[in-house]
Amino acid sequence: MYHRLQALVLKTGVSAEADKTVLLFTREWGKVLECDFSVYLKTPNARSRVTGVRILNGFSSLRSDWRRFCMAQHCSEICDALTMYNSENAMKYDLLGRTWELLEKAENPKRIVLAFTMRFLKLSGYSFLDYIKRGNLQTTRSVYDVLLKISTMSGEALDADEGMDDSILSEVESCLEGYLNLYLTRPLHSKKFMSKIAVMEKQLAAAN
Question: Could you tell me which CATH number the domain at 62-185 has?
């Protein structure tokens, strides 16, 4: 049976059975292994085979800027790690797609990633603010206020907010990263890569 699906590509790889396997995040069926798609499937749980593809948005601005691409890949890895196969969630799908769109043009892309992380965790049943309210983590008032902003403001408003303090954002990022790691079975590849690049840039700056 053929099905027409909209999907975001989380990652691709080469397998022994086919030229390429693609991990898709679909609006209709959630995460499936295998931009409008024609897919042959007996059931949502079966191994799928893509028979036709129309790209709706190639996110060319992300692919031409490696830093933004890494941030988009970071969001994809979070989605993959916190989403079961064949678990439909249109809100997660819309959040990831909207985040990629914002990352293409945002002046402060790191804020967009932080907002995505908080909101995706909440959609997965792991609200960071609830975790703090239960007394599991002590934060300063400044950090908590920024967390509230990140969890409620629109992406455009968050990107344009001139009242954000970079040092507070760094504290927020550290707290959120520690909380996220409670639910990950392995470190995110994108995070490791960006950390290595940051170390290399510091070494080059020191050498010059």
Answer: 1.20.1440.120
* Tokens matching residue 47: 């191994």
Pairing state between β 36-40 and 2-5 = antiparallel
SS3 for 150? helix
pTM, to two decimals: 0.86
Q: How many CA atoms lie within 13 A of 189 on its CB side?
A: 8
Look at residue 45 in the predicted model and tell me its pLDDT: 56
Packing angle, helices 141-152 and 109-123, rounded to 10: 80
The three-class DSSP label of residue 161 is coil
Number of H helices, E strands in the chain: 9, 6
**Domain ranges within the chain, ordered by starting residue:** 2-54, 62-185
| Under-70 pLDDT residues of the chain | 1, 15-19, 34-51
